[in-house]
Amino acid sequence: MSSTVTATPTTQSEHPVVLSPERSKLGLLRPDHGKSVIIDWLTTVDHKKIGIMYGAIALFFLLVGGLEALIIRTQLAVPENDLISAQRYNQLFTMHGTTMIFLAVMPLNAAFFNFLVPLQIGARDVAFPRINSFSLWAFVAGALVINFGWILQALEAMGLFSASGPTEGMNDFVPAMGWFGYAPITGIKFTGAGTDFWIMGLQILGIASLTAAMNFTVTIVNMRAPGMKMMRMPVFTWMTLVTSLLIVFAFPAITVALGELMFDRLFGTNFFVTAGGGQPILWQHLFWIFGHPEVYILVLPAMGIISEVLPTFAKKPLFGYPIVVFSGAVIGFLGFAVWSHHMFTTGLGKVATAAFSLLTMAIAVPTGVKIFNWVGTLWGGRVRFSPPMIFALGFVWMFMMGGFSGIMHSSAPADAQQQDSYFVIAHFHYVAIGGIFLAVVSGIYFWLPKMIGKMWKGNLSTWVAIFSTVGLNVTFFPMHFLGLLGMPRRTHTYLEGFGWETYNLVCTIGAYILAFGILLLVVDIIRCFRSGEPAGNDPWDARTLEWKTTSPPQVYNFGKTPIIHARDALWEDKYGPENRKCGEQAEDGHGIHMPSQSWWPLLASAGFIPLGLGLSLMQAGVPFMGYFAIFGLCLCTVGIALWAIEGPGGYHLHPKKDA
User: Which of 199, 65, 223 lies closest to 132 in space, CA to CA?
Assistant: First the structure.
């Protein structure tokens, strides 16, 4: 394809700048050779490149969190083990939970949001491309701040760094209070700078998530292709919209809680200090008002992935599409009404306990409806057991296992017995790994050929599925029995004679099996990148609009904006009657406007790093950290100011034919 290309200047010049025709040929993995490849990716505002960077960073942190989990399980393999100290164990389980939820699963979902949503709704990009770039780099900044304690520990161990004041000693620089961050454990008297890193990092991650969520909400509401009515959108796009709204309404609660905790630690306020008139239980309410919707922020995108994969490989439309969409919205709504089932043991009172028990039971109904819809989709279909389908079917069964144990916790007496025991760990990990992880892997196998234009090689995916599902069940199913036998969570070690030894050893063996399965997944991804065969535009004979464009997609996504006449637009385009096939919007002569790349979102996000580190290390007695924090704030301000005066900019493409 060739085209004429002009650029809209970022200043008020009257004359457009003529660019080389090769700019029209830029696909996802075809950088502009007029600039450095690194600069091209650092300054990009292309939603597809941003999605791939989210995915790569998230996979890295998935491996980090998995390594932390392996060390934890190795410590618990035998009684009275001294592989690591109690303090190190506390650091590892705190960082494992934080890393997996905020630095692995959420950005993995964001990777799919970024890459797929504009393609699925027939848009050129997201509504605010530079804000999209800002969200990515703010996420990176928050991840660095949270994990900065590991770097300081290494430097202190080598004699290159030392601290004074209340956090003297290397073990204080990594969060060690549990990823719930319960007050008053997080008070300045009990924990060191690691808690401050955790607070600042989560605040920065919250900014990244909120800006991204608002961006996707506006994109889905306002930028759908002509004819793409709300009830014609793919289910994954619907779940992205519901998830984005959940983030917008849930994250302010944790923002307030973290802000109050920051003020308690830095400025001596008493929001959570009983002696000063505060209430430690206030943290639990604020945390779980955010925390339980957060579960559905993680799960709903996984459900959206499954709702795209199953119809494709069953060769049938999704059974009960409106009900699937409605049940997802109901799950999101009820997610705000069940937070106190995490607090049945705090003395809520009979009325509150009864109310939250009923609501916890109620939220199982729309979840069960989705299961029946997925089974109905498979019923009578011509099922193909391709890699995405294998993991999707694994998700359905493993997620049901997690759901069954979750329903038990709607009963307050049973919950009181299982609270803070290994039974709860088993339940959550069946949802998180058996549900979310298997769905994400299904999505990777489904959409990676579209992202990079290469097809999977061989049958390594089968071994990934075997080791992942076997490892999952061997690791977490015995934990139900450990919980019923009374083993509390966050236990550094244990004595012989409790009956826990065999179960813990089996769990540890299972963890290594699961880790091997994840390692095989990474190997399979690398093989696909390096030596995969060309995938073609639609290798799975799929149903939705993203498969209508090239693999990988061109920088502008679609040569001509599609006009939608039915749900499952691509399927109707291939096999439907003439009146349901996609049309194309007529050209207006102005071409396709594409946004220019920009440094300023990166600069504004980079300011969060000195700001967060400076405020955190002030408590550690490190000199000049207050000035370092001010420098970070100035960097953010300058980046945003330059971003604001940069102007819309961009360039125009004139493709001769559709991509």
Answer: 223
